[in-house]
Design a protein that fits this description.
Layout: E1 4-13, E2 19-27, E3 32-36, H1 64-78, H2 86-97, H3 107-124, H4 129-141, E4 151-158, E5 171-175, H5 182-202, H6 222-235, E6 245-249, E7 261-263, E8 268-270, H7 272-285, E9 288-292, H8 300-310, E10 315-318, H9 326-334, E11 340-343, H10 345-348, H11 351-363, E12 367-371, H12 381-388, E13 393-395, H13 402-417
Parallel strand pairs: 4-13, 6-9, 9-10, 10-11, 11-12, 12-13
Antiparallel strand pairs: 1-2, 2-3, 4-5, 5-6, 7-8
The protein binds 2-phosphoglycolic acid (PGA) and zinc ion.
Length: 424
């Protein structure tokens, strides 16, 4: 295998117009590939540190320090290495940073290199990125995985930190569970999305979209949002609860005041126990099969309560709760919180650690869901990660806006080119 001969990073921009990093890695024979780093808005407090410059320019958000760290410091650790050795490369970067949260050189700097290494290795091996990810998983864990197409959760109605409306729950998603293949998944999702738009228009609601491409109308309640979605599913002549299910991401840390869950949109203040009952009621009324961050990341008693009450019937996903961190996940499993984990590369800051967390989840019968961030780019790495590791579920926004649709379009090509890879 040709060795890495150069590493170059520049500042580029994400879907919100905020600076992020693009990193390009070139091998001795001239083969090169690049990757970009995403960024969250409703971030967990224990996420790895996204290094930003905090200068007057770019409202403090530029990433020139992290870019310089790549070009002037980290590149020397990577040049001369075999790009197939993902773990060795990631570990050398982590060791150099020498902090728990990657705050020294920046998790965004480490991740940019980590992602670009995977891309260039796949290219040099002349295989698809998803096939390469299966190999990396085997290298890191010693175990084989089967490829499969993931079933998406499409975020078609946005609230919380991702929109300027009055809805408290951050994401209302549809899951085309009954679709036979990915082509049908996309047909159903886009038809429902456009029917929802029609229904919103008829009811004089705004059809402007939020950060992840879902509509962001001001509505009376979370209940009304769910009702409109069920209407859109029926309008598409699909059966709610059979063909199409619903998932929520409450991102509850964003409306927890340390004691109560404050639903401003519907003037409610609920204790952990009352909010559990509130969510339980919604699952009885609507075909909700998955709830993410149903409690605040530090509300351990609330999480236990929610898991006890809903854990056997509903997928309960820890996002801000686990921040893709194996140690935090282990602690959460011991405390019987949640039953699945959202996976975001940049919460932990390298491919190797992401894969180690997924492996740990697999060993503990926790489901994983591969996820984008609300600030995204045209980078589609997560689509290949989902297929290559046979994860089964992906969450990457509405079927609208190219930063979201790029991932779905990549999955359509994977299905087209590999007819033996089926929906899980
Ligand atoms: P974020 O939102 O990228 O703003 O954190 C996505 C999510 O909460 O799942
Ligand atoms: Zn979330």
């Amino acid at each position: 295998m040709q060795k890495i001969s150069s590493v170059n990073a520049i500042q580029v921009f994400d879907s919100r117009g905020i600076p992020t990093i693009s990193c390009k890695i070139t091998l001795e024979d001239g083969i090169s590939a690049s990757a970009m780093v995403p960024s969250g808005a409703s971030t967990g407090s224990k996420e790895a540190v996204e290094l930003r410059d905090n200068e007057i320019t770019y409202h403090g958000k530029s990433v020139i320090k992290a870019v310089n760290n790549i070009n002037n410091i980290l590149s020397s650790l990577v040049i001369g290495k075999n790009p197939n050795n993902q773990k060795e490369i990631d570990e050398s970067l982590i060791l150099f940073d020498d902090t728990k949260d990657k705050s020294n050189v920046g998790a965004n700097a480490i991740l940019a290199i980590s992602l670009a290494v995977a891309h260039v290795a796949a290219k040099a091996n002349n295989i698809s990125l998803y096939e390469h990810f299966s190999r990396v998983y085997k290298d890191i864990t010693g175990e084989n995985v089967n490829h499969s197409m993931p079933l998406p959760m499409f975020n078609i109605l946005n609230g919380g930190e991702h929109a300027d409306n009055n809805i408290d729950i951050q994401e209302f998603m549809i899951i085309p569970s009954g679709a036979k293949d990915f082509v049908e998944v996309m047909q159903w999702a886009t038809e429902i999305y456009h029917n929802l738009k029609k229904i919103l228009l008829i009811n004089n609601h705004s059809t402007a979209v939020g950060d992840e491409g879902g509509f962001a109308p001001s509505l009376e309640s979370n209940d009304e949002a769910l009702k409109l979605i069920v209407d859109a599913i029926k309008e598409t002549e699909l059966v709610p609860g059979k063909d199409v299910n619903i998932a929520l991401d409450c991102a509850a840390s964003e409306f927890f005041d340390g004691k109560e869950y404050i639903l401003t949109g519907e003037s409610k203040k609920l204790s952990s126990s009352a909010f559990t009952d509130y969510l339980d009621d919604l699952t009885k009324k609507y075909p909700i099969v998955s709830i993410e961050d149903g409690m605040d990341e530090n509300d351990i008693e609330g999480w236990k309560l929610l898991t006890e009450k809903l854990g056997s019937t509903c997928q309960l996903v820890g996002d801000d709760l686990f921040v893709t961190n194996k140690k935090i996940l282990k602690d959460g499993i011991n405390k019987e919180m949640a039953n699945s984990i959202l996976i975001k590369f940049n919460q932990v800051g390298s491919i190797t650690e992401t894969i180690e967390t997924i492996h740990f989840a697999n060993q503990n019968n926790f489901k994983s869901i591969i996820s984008h961030r609300s600030g995204e780019t045209e980078d589609t790495t997560i689509a290949d990660l989902a297929v290559g590791l046979g994860i089964g579920q992906i969450k990457t926004g509405a079927p609208c806006r190219s930063d979201r649709v790029a991932k779905y379009n990549r999955l359509l090509w994977i299905e087209e080119e590999s007819s033996n890879i089926l929906l899980k």
